[in-house]
Amino acid sequence: MGFHRAGWAVLMLAIAACGGATPTPEAPKTATADQAANAAKTTTNTTTNTSDPKTQPSAPTATAASPSGTAAQAKEGAASAVEPGAASTQADEAIALPDLAEAPGSSELESGAQAIQQEGWIVAQQRLGLALENLAKTNNNPDALLVGYALLGRSCSKGRSPRCAEKSYQKVINLWSDPATAQALKNRGSDAAARARHGRAALAAGEAMLFFAERMRADLERVRMPEYKGNTDRESISAFVRKDVAAFVQRKQSLIDEVDLAYGRIVEIQPAPPQLSVFAAARRAMMRGKLHAELRAAPLPRSWTRTGKDPATGLSYEVIRKHYFMAIDELGEPLRARARTSYQACSALAGHLSVENEYSRNCATWLEKNATR
Predict the structure, then answer these.
(1) Which of 85, 98, 138, 244 is the most buried (most CB within 10 A)?
(2) What whole-number distance in Å separates Cα of residue 230 and Cα of residue 291?
């Protein structure tokens, strides 16, 4: 089976609903698979990428500002996502699956999944809630429970019930992290049906991890580059970069490192969902690239945009701007090098998993524009 854009749109819109953000552009559709198969390749109508944070493509955002919980709760949820049987390298087999709402893999979940496809969020919550009650009585099918809780989380997100979404997605992560789940999935065997069940379980786990990772990233976006409002002499400008800008970089890098781990857990899911894995890798790279771009993107003092000379120093405004950007670029070069490493990892993963979409192209384009000189 190939990938279905409509299903991905529902998934990403659902996650976005917790923060009220609009998905622009559409994120890739979750599909469980691994590197070796010729997984279906998706294409999109737009390919945008630049080092300017104002023009970088954005995916649906689940903001931490929603009443669904704090950043600490999001961090806790993301940190608890440990994959059953996670390996250090990607597995050799790939299974391309449709969206969970289109093929939940369990007859008990079909009615609730159909309600999600019809955007009947309240009905979906009711049907899935009853189905999960019945499934939980035996707990013999952890893959069905994982899918059911993920779909419930999605219906809650889209239905503007953020606390319900958080609770449901946390159940997915808790179940996925339980060693008993890994053993149960292993006991199912290795035939095509068993691999599909494991694939759907991984797909559900990835959706839950994405929910928490996106919320953490929303907190990161609130940390802004300081604007210079000081004097025009070189000493004042240099001091601003050494102190204020350096402090901003240190703080934001620390936050990026935490969010990076959350997206990294998605990349490490086994069996790997190719589209979602590449999306998470692109997120990691874009955070690093945006930090580098932010240094130059902060507004300059209005007087610096003029021609002529500054009356206080006698220096031309062109010289003042040049000094400012030289100091900024010196501080930012290590950030660009680190971003390059992340973009290289994204591009390599996309090739490894045979994924070609907007996000894989963003990674490749950034590397072209920021080639080592």
Answers:
(1) 98
(2) 23
**Which of these, 294, 282, 302, 298, lies nearest to 335 by C-alpha position?**
294
Six token digits for residue 349:
């993963």
- Return left, alpha or beta for 99; rule: phi > 0 is left, psi -120 to 50 is alpha, else beta: beta
Q: Do residues 236 and 50 touch, judged by C-beta distance below 8 A? A: no
- What is the C-alpha separation between 122 and 161, in angstroms, rounded? 10
Phi, psi of 48 (to 5 degrees): -120, 135
User: By C-alpha distance, which of 61, 74, 71, 66 is closest to 12?
Assistant: 61
Quote the CA–CA distance of 178 and 155 in Å, as a whole number. 24
23 and 13 in contact (C-beta within 8 Å)?
A: yes
Distance CA 361, CA 339 (A): 16
Q: Tell me the three state secondary structure of residue 257.
A: helix
Token code pair at residue 188: 């199912």
The CA distance from 233 to 212, in Å, is 45
Residue span of the structural domain in which 9 resides: 5-369
Report DSSP state, residue 292.
H
Spatial CA neighbour of 274 closest among 200, 364, 205, 352? 352
- 279 and 287 Cβ atoms separated by less than 8 Å: no
Tell me: the pLDDT tens digits for 218-232? 888 889 999 999 999
Which distant-in-sequence residues (6+ apart) come within 8 Å of 8 by Cβ? Answer: 26, 27, 28, 29, 30, 99, 275
Q: Identify any residues that bridge with 309 across adjacent strands, giving them in sequence order.
A: 316
DSSP code at position 176:
H
Buried b (16+ CB within 10 A) or exposed e, 243-274: eebeebbeebbebbebbbbbbbbbbbbbbbbb
- Report the number of secondary-structure helices (H) and strands (E) in the chain: 13, 0
Q: Which two tokens stand for residue 90?
A: 């990607």
Q: What is the pLDDT of residues 258-309, one digit of tens each?
A: 999 999 999 999 888 888 999 999 999 999 999 999 998 988 999 999 899 9
What is the rounded CA–CA span in Å between residue 193 and residue 123? 29
Tokens of 32: 């469980």
